[in-house]
Each structure stands twice: as structure tokens, then as C-alpha cells.
Amino acid sequence: MNLKRVYGVYLRQMYVIKNIPSRVVPYMLWAVLDIVLWGFITRYLNEVGGASFSFVPALLGAVLFWDFLQRVQQGLTIPFLEDVWSHNLLNIFASPLKIGEYILGFIATSIVTSAFGLAVMVILAYALFGLSIFSLGVALLPFILVLFLFGLTLGIVGAAIVMRLGPYAEWFIWPIPAVLGPFVGVFYPVSILPQWMQYVSTVLPPSGVFEAMRHIIAGGAFDASALSWSIALSLVYLALAFALFAFTYRVVVRKGLIARFSAEGE
Asked: How many domains does the chain have?
């Protein structure tokens, strides 16, 4: 593992973002729109509901965390697609760069871009709607850790899908968070789901985050052991996702499918 190569992958993406400001838009625009839209929805529900329960931390907080997961996924997937769109992927893998170094460079990129997106959402949610995620206390760190790890997993799996199926398979990866959303109970307790969906929910780490978040908002205490399963599962999934990408790369190279990503292949 050569950390200089990892830094080189990261630095190249930072230069892309710096020199093409429009690249910043995917990292924050939709998150900002979601915060504003759901913020006003929660404010409206508070007004018409007439209950002592506030929808702001429950719903708007869920939106903030879920958007953070998607920003993490895109922070890894978009740099990979940059290499696909620029017909640079074949050149990347013809270099001494190793698969692990390539992925770690994108993980470093995702840390920066997702942290920037999260900061924008947190500031906006507090300034407009008075939501402070820091009120969750010590639970905030494991929440962010689980969502970050699972977001990386989705990003790596998405990159593997494009690697195996070709450049036009990118349309398969964007809906992945939307497909998983109903199972993890972003806006509602998992207990209201049909039994078979609850079984799926138990093996999706984010479901533990949103269940714990609602428990804390309702006045319950933070149970660190309850999130241990989510953290362990996230680490396992991340390792499996990396193994999938490495396996896919070997298959694509062995079958000569990597040539689809060259300019001549277009």
C-alpha cells in the first residue's frame, strides 16, 4: 500500500472539484432542497397536528441523516464515474496503482465531500428550523459512523456494477438508496412493516440508526449495545463490497471487458 498513490487519487479529484465548480452541485444541491422541503413539511405538520410531539427532529433529522448517507455514496461513485466519463479508467488500471489504493483515494474524497455536505445541511437545518443534531449527544458519532460505512459500501457496489456491466450501467446505481429506503424505516418505525420487510430490515445497518434516533427523540436513553450490530454489520458489508470490486476487476480484465471504457471502445 503506497499512501502517496492514495493521496494522488484524492488530490486529482480535489483538482477536478476546484477547477470545475459545477461538480460541487451534486454534493449539496439536492441535500439543501430536501432540507428546505421537509423542513416546511414538518413545520406544517406541527401546526395542523396540534400535538406536543414535534415532527422536526423525527422527520427532518431522518432526512438529514439519510441525505448524508447518499452524499457518502455519491462521494465515492461520482469520482469513479468521472474516470468512466473521461475515458480514463483504462489508463488508471494500466498504471502501477493498486485496487486498494484506488478505492482508498475515493474514500478520502468521500470523507471531504460528505463532511462538506453534512455541514451545509446541519447549518441550514439549524438556521431555518432550529434543528440541532448535536442534541443527540454521544449517539451522534455512532450514527454517523454507521451511515458513512454503509454509504461507502453502496458506492463501491455501484462502481462494481458499472465496471461489470459497462459505462451505461450507471443508471442502475442511482436508485439504490431509494430502493433500500422503505426497508430501513427512515420516516417510520420498522415495526409497521410487513413481516418479510422486517426480516430484510434487520440486515440493513441504517435501520438500527433510525430506530435508535426515534427512541432518543421520544425520551429514551442511548443504548450503545443496540448499535453494535449495525456497526459490525457495516464493517462486514464494507469488506464484502471491496472484495466484490476486486473480484469484478479481475473478471473484467481477464475477459477483456476493460476495453469498453477506452475512448476507442466508444
From this structure: 1
* Reported confidence tier of residue 196, pLDDT bands at 50, 70, 90: very high
Cα separation, 189 vs 211, whole angstroms: 7
Alpha-carbon dihedral angle through residues 124, 127, 131, 134, given to the nearest 10 degrees: 80
Q: Which three cell numbers stand for residue 163?
A: 465496471
Give the separation between CA 86 and CA 263, rounded to whole angstroms.
Answer: 8
Return the C-alpha cell found at 28: 449539496
pLDDT in tens, 104-161: 999 998 888 888 888 888 898 888 888 888 888 888 899 999 999 999 999 999 999 9
Residue 12 lies in a domain: yes
pLDDT tens digits along 14-47: 887 777 766 666 667 777 888 888 888 888 887 7
Residue 95 lies in a domain: yes
How far out from the chain centre does Cα 136 lie?
21
The verdict on residue 266 lying in a domain is no
DSSP assignment string, 112-174: HHHHHHHHHHHHHHHHHH---GGGGGGGHHHHHHHHHHHHHHHHHHHHHHHHHH-GGGGGGTT
* Burial (CB count within 10 angstroms: exposed 0-12, middle 13-18, buried 19+), residue 100: middle
If one counts every other C-beta atom within 10 angstroms of the C-beta of residue 8, the result is 15
CA angle 42, 182, 116 (to 5 degrees): 60
The reported pTM is 0.89
* Whole-number Å distance between alpha carbons of 217 and 201: 21
Residue 182 to residue 201: CA distance in whole angstroms: 9
Query: Which value, to the nearest 10 degrees, does the dihedral of the CA atoms of residues 82, 34, 128, 113 take?
Result: -20
Residue 180 domain boundaries: 3-261
